[in-house]
């Protein structure tokens, strides 16, 4: 006799398909012992039969018009009566390794199958009730189970299974948040995790931007417990980042206006051009973008920056990057010489303070949005804005006192800055040097093309307005 095998597992927590492999192996042994031939195997892994989600392989099984069906247990094939009636319509026998033979061609066989399915449906409904009760209990406990540990099927990035912070991953994740607030990208965050030797907990594979993004968007990192995708209250574990930082990063990663390599890039791609999105056209005030000059054969000859609006400002990118990096480092050297003896510049965690300010600014925008939606009263809006402004002023005073707003410990190390500006082949380390440009330059304006190369020699294509030293 020829049979088709169907196997299913509702939840494959580890993603290794061991459960369905075991079912298939035992079904094959069952068929071999009876001299049956297995014509095809249908596998639905990590799919529940009671949630209403379509089971692709189950649908394919029905469409294949099998002569007989073999499963590990009937509840692997059927959990609701609607599916049973569709199988009955096939008018074939169903064999279950753990439950015996169901002759669906007879009234008695169909009655037994309907009874088994009814009890399976009952079991599924009761399980759902128990799970909802357990979830409500975890909500009241801030996400903890009866054992006092979070209900996490696998260890999330930054945490241990008991809810404590992972000594390596938590600081790294915190740094990724800070870098995103400072204009970094998801690609840079992935590379940073790779440098730290951090891989995914489930598969042990390197992180990707597509897998890192949902982790950063998870409120768990801010100590917020979720139930059915909704925030229900503070979690019992310590947050890795403050809620304001988390909210700000969510706004960045969820902003549809972000553009690769642009001023709103916020994170998906790898920033490759230093002045894209930073420099603006002196005529129309539109940001510039990078493009390639091509010869008559369509071959690339050199890269240049061009106004994305009126297309009037056009300068070679290699020359522009060289001028900007040189002038920026020279300005940093001037600022360094102005520091008083014994200055503590570079000794505070400026990245964290700067990230905090940006997070507070983002929270102010959220308050205004909530007011426009009627969620907050006018008094609540004023109180929230005043609280945020007070904290921003406090942080700004602290930064100013250390003469180091926006300055990491590398900022005053001009040897490092020179190394970033040229790798020996005329290339700038764009991701590392971009924050330096933002820190030093208030604005960079590009003018239209002049007459001949003399303009390039004297730098009249670029007008840089610097911040005052702090």
Automatic annotation (TrEMBL):
<dbReference type="InterPro" id="IPR006119">
    <property type="entry name" value="Resolv_N"/>
</dbReference>
<feature type="coiled-coil region">
    <location>
        <begin position="350"/>
        <end position="398"/>
    </location>
</feature>
<protein>
    <submittedName>
        <fullName>Recombinase family protein</fullName>
    </submittedName>
</protein>
<dbReference type="GO" id="GO:0000150">
    <property type="term" value="F:DNA strand exchange activity"/>
</dbReference>
<dbReference type="Pfam" id="PF07508">
    <property type="entry name" value="Recombinase"/>
</dbReference>
<dbReference type="InterPro" id="IPR036162">
    <property type="entry name" value="Resolvase-like_N_sf"/>
</dbReference>
<feature type="domain" description="Recombinase">
    <location>
        <begin position="151"/>
        <end position="259"/>
    </location>
</feature>
<dbReference type="InterPro" id="IPR011109">
    <property type="entry name" value="DNA_bind_recombinase_dom"/>
</dbReference>
<dbReference type="Pfam" id="PF00239">
    <property type="entry name" value="Resolvase"/>
</dbReference>
<dbReference type="GO" id="GO:0003677">
    <property type="term" value="F:DNA binding"/>
</dbReference>
<dbReference type="InterPro" id="IPR050639">
    <property type="entry name" value="SSR_resolvase"/>
</dbReference>
<dbReference type="InterPro" id="IPR038109">
    <property type="entry name" value="DNA_bind_recomb_sf"/>
</dbReference>
<keyword id="KW-0175">Coiled coil</keyword>
């Amino acid at each position: 006799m020829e049979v088709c095998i169907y196997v299913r597992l509702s939840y494959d927590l580890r993603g290794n398909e061991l459960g369905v492999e075991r079912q298939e192996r035992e079904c094959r042994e069952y068929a071999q012992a009876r001299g049956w031939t297995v014509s095809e195997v249908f596998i639905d892994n990590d799919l529940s039969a009671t949630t209403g989600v379509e089971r692709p392989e189950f649908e394919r099984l029905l469409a294949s018009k099998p002569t007989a069906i073999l499963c590990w247990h009937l509840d692997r094939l059927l959990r609701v009566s609607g599916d049973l009636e569709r199988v009955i319509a096939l008018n074939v026998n169903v064999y279950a390794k753990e439950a015996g033979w169901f002759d669906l061609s007879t009234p008695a066989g169909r009655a037994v199958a309907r009874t088994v399915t009814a009890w399976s449906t009952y079991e599924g409904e009761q399980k759902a009730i128990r799970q909802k009760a357990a979830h409500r209990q975890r909500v009241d406990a801030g996400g903890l189970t009866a054992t006092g540990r979070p209900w996490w099927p696998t260890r999330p990035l930054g945490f241990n299974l008991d809810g404590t912070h992972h000594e390596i991953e938590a600081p790294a994740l915190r740094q990724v948040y800070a870098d995103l607030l400072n204009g970094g990208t998801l690609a840079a965050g992935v590379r940073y995790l790779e440098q730290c030797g951090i891989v995914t907990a489930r598969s042990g594979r390197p992180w990707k931007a597509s897998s890192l993004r949902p982790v950063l968007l998870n409120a768990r990192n801010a100590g917020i417990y979720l139930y059915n995708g909704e925030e229900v209250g503070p979690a019992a574990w310590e947050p890795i980042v403050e809620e304001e930082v988390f909210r700000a990063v969510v706004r960045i990663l969820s902003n549809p206006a972000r553009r690769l390599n642009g001023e709103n890039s916020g994170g998906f791609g790898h920033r490759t051009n230093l002045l894209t999105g930073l420099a603006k056209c002196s005529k129309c005030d539109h940001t510039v973008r990078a493009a390639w000059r091509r010869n008559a054969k369509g071959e690339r000859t050199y890269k240049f920056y061009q106004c994305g609006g009126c297309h009037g400002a056009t300068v070679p990118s290699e020359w522009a990057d060289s001028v900007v990096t040189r002038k920026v480092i020279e300005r940093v050297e001037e600022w360094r010489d102005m520091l008083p003896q014994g200055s503590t510049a570079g000794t505070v965690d400026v990245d964290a303070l700067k990230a905090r300010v940006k997070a507070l600014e983002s929270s102010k925008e959220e308050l205004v949005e909530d007011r426009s939606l009627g969620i907050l009263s006018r008094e609540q809006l004023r109180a929230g804005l005043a609280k945020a402004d007070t904290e921003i002023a406090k942080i700004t005073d602290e930064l100013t006192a250390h003469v180091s707003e926006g300055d990491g410990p590398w900022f005053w190390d001009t040897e490092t800055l020179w190394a970033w500006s040229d790798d020996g082949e005329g290339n700038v380390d764009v991701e590392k040097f971009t924050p330096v440009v933002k820190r030093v330059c208030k604005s960079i304006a590009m003018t239209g093309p002049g007459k001949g190369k003399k303009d390039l020699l004297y730098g009249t294509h670029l007008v840089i307005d610097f911040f005052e030293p702090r």
